[in-house]
Design brief:
alpha+beta; Spore Coat Polysaccharide Biosynthesis Protein SpsA, Chain A; eight-stranded antiparallel beta barrel; HPAT-like
Length: 696
């Protein structure tokens, strides 16, 4: 029986023998290559480099073994791939193309050869064709997806990132990309670049499996002259665009420098990755950015102010794109991720259209400061290049938008808009705040270190930006060496006249709205000496019994009829005041009922907290005011409010026939729910532009 079994197994063993031999061969080759990484590599131009070569070669081998080698199997065995990558490292050392820091860690982002070794043989995965999303963007524009479930909580293209574990090799799936930071030679962009590069390097260091493997600053300068940062970061310098091309609009240097870079050879030596990410100097990297682009699909951010829907913008778009103008996506060239071949394809037309749009008087007037972004968007539309418009990629906060950074969880904070607040944390719209963090304050010099913190009631975005600035400038130490300008509280005059108190003040802020000369309304007085007028914001202060002075275009003095229950006033205007009448009168608006509304309780905690504060904005629309006896002033006319029994922070608000439950959250904010359908709205105190062209 045993002989019979052996006889029957012999053919099977003979069939399996080649596979055993192949496996043994691969094992031996791997062992030889792995052992070779610890051998002496001979004399090097640097003793430190010689000592560190085993670790470097081991890393190249280890990175190979942690990648998805099944994709490479048709072209080479595992041993061949390891050998190829170790050979690339050795060649880089022989050419002096590998830099090492003093602590023995390789500067991977500054070594094209080492990065090339890490991504040898490229990305061989198959990608589905871009999928048209069933969801439209906010303006109704189309969106295209890299994978069908790209908008889900667990998209397939990010599955590999969910398998990342601390202190373990990176899972297969990484697709490295090269960050290209476009910049111009100026103090303004120099300090921004330092902060951006600091946070890039920090994120790269703290993300073991990052795809942000390379970095190059693409600098436009007069005469292609180097600046003070060329020794601090990898840089390619090109001659800046001519005045004829830019017509004074320097942002055209972005497509210009990209075009000039692609004509030369320097970028080929540096950009060894298959993908590029176009960044700007005012980008703060909050999280490790994943690569969601494909060879046929770019990734970009949705800019609502670039929609092809508005009539004026549509007219220009139709002249530069013959297809359906609504298919032109509202995106710009930064932040944007794309394949290198796509960058080479789009750049010439992007530059050409940007120059033509600037020379086009109508296009220049309509597109304004985003004209070059339209050049990119229109170039992509004409070339059939589609985008995955990924809203999470970036956030562009301001004190006005009321965006929640933590809730939106973006990868980039783009500080293109200033963050403006009063010292008590009220957002300022269309004007410079008493606390003002705006990059435009620092055209001619650096922001100082240790910037003043935002007011306690400021929104989260102010604290995020402030912390990231201070962290970078502190860490940069002596590298933060430019001439510094003023701090964040040195750019604007006070919003209001400060704390006011007394029975007369209480009577003024709880009464209203007021009408001037029977036609101009509303005039509203608020706590802290803030004043809302038909012409903009002003301030007021008490200057005598029943008398107040307004700072409103110029000084105007009002005298009321009563100190405890004012109902009318007379006024005189200072010399030089541009008014039709140097004197006149005002009175309470007769359209508003003054008797207490049903259920009014002046002692209710929420009513006491709201009365006299403001001006409030309902979903950004102002003014709204909470006055005595439950009188509510709204942008849509008269309303009322009463405290909700049993609560300390809730009032029931009625206006335009609808009832709302409003919860006062403190820090000049409330949250409203409409009782009929549950619609939610946020409200906040909001200050605006100072009064201009007063026509009393």
């Amino acid at each position: 029986a045993g002989a019979a079994m052996a006889s029957s197994l012999r053919p099977v063993l003979l069939l399996l023998l080649p596979f055993f031999l192949i496996a043994l061969l691969h094992h031996l080759r791997f062992t030889l290559f792995y052992n070779s990484i610890s051998t002496d590599v001979g004399r090097s131009r640097s003793g430190g480099l010689h000592r560190q070569m085993p670790q470097v070669r081991a890393r190249a081998a280890a990175e190979t073994l942690t990648e998805d080698v099944q994709d490479e199997a048709p072209r080479a065995s595992i041993g061949d791939v390891v050998a190829h990558r170790i050979q690339a490292v050795d060649s880089a050392v022989a050419d002096g193309d590998v830099n090492f820091s003093l602590n023995g860690e390789d500067a991977a982002s500054d070594s094209p050869a080492l990065r090339q070794a890490a991504i040898a043989n490229g990305d061989t995965r198959e990608y589905p064709k871009p999928t048209l999303s069933s969801k439209r963007l906010l303006d109704g524009s189309e969106n295209w997806l890299p994978v069908p479930n790209a908008e889900s909580d667990s998209p397939d293209d990010l599955a590999w990132r969910r398998r990342i574990r601390p202190n373990e090799p990176c899972p297969p799936g990484r697709r490295p990309f090269h960050v290209i930071l476009t910049a111009q030679a100026s103090v303004y962009q120099e300090w921004q670049t330092k902060i951006m590069y600091y946070h890039f390097k920090k994120m790269q260091k703290n993300s073991a499996c990052t795809e942000m493997t390379g970095f190059t600053r693409l600098l436009a300068s007069r005469g292609a002259q180097p600046d003070g940062l060329v020794d601090s970061m990898p840089t390619i310098i090109v001659e800046q665009a001519s005045r004829e091309a830019t017509r004074g609009f320097q942002v055209i240097n972005r497509p210009w420098t990209m075009s000039e870079m692609l004509k030369g050879d320097a970028w080929r030596a540096r950009v060894v990755e298959d993908y590029v990410f176009v960044a700007e100097t005012d980008h703060l990297i909050l999280k490790d950015i994943p690569n969601r682009a494909t060879p046929e699909l770019n990734v970009a951010f949705f800019f609502p102010y670039m929609s092809p829907v508005p009539r004026e913008q549509a007219e220009v778009v139709k002249r530069y794109f013959s297809g359906d103008h609504l298919t032109v996506q509202p995106v710009g060239p930064s932040p944007a991720l794309m394949h290198v071949e796509t960058l080479k394809k789009v750049t010439p037309l992007w530059l050409d259209l940007s120059v033509k749009l600037k020379a086009d008087r109508q296009a220049d007037a309509v597109f304004g400061w985003v004209l070059e972004m339209w050049g990119y968007s229109l170039a992509c539309a004409n070339l059939g290049i589609k985008h995955f418009v990924w809203q999470q990629l970036q956030i562009e906060p301001s004190a006005t938008w009321h965006q929640n950074v933590s809730a939106e969880d973006p990868y980039i904070y783009h500080y293109t808009f200033g963050v403006e607040y009063s010292l008590d944390g009220i957002p300022v719209v269309g004007a410079v705040g008493e606390w003002s963090l705006d990059k435009r304050h620092y055209f001619g010099g650096y922001p100082p270190k240790n910037l003043e913190p935002p007011p306690e009631c400021a929104l989260e975005c102010a604290f995020v930006w402030w912390r990231m600035f201070n962290e970078a400038t502190e860490a940069l130490g002596d590298e933060w060496n430019g001439h510094t300008l003023g701090g964040l509280t040195s750019f604007a005059r006070a919003q209001g006249s400060g704390e006011l108190s007394g029975p007369f003040v209480d009577a003024i802020v709880s009464s209203g709205p007021w009408v001037i000369n029977g036609e101009h309304k509303p005039l509203l007085f608020f706590v802290r000496g803030r004043l809302h007028s038909p012409w903009g914001m002003g301030s007021w202060r008490v200057v005598g019994t029943k008398r107040v002075a307004l700072s409103l275009c110029a000084t105007v003095e009002l005298e009321f009829d009563s100190e405890s229950a004012p109902s009318k006033f007379s006024y005189t205007a200072a010399e030089g005041f541009t008014v039709r009448k140097r004197s006149g009168a005002g009175a309470l608006d007769s359209a508003y009922v003054r008797a207490p509304v049903d259920g009014w309780d002046a002692s209710h905690p929420a009513a006491k907290a709201l009365i006299g504060t403001g001006p409030w904005a309902w979903a950004g629309i102002s003014p709204m005011a909470f006055l005595a006896n439950g009188v509510l002033v709204s942008p849509w006319g008269e309303g009322s409010y009463v405290g909700v029994a049993g609560s300390e922070d809730t009032v029931r608000v009625t206006f335009v026939g609808a009832k709302h439950t409003v919860v006062y959250e403190g820090c000049h904010k409330f949250r409203s729910v409409r009782e009929s359908d549950g619609a939610k709205v946020d409200g906040w105190v909001q200050l605006g532009q100072s009064a201009r062209h007063c026509q009393m």
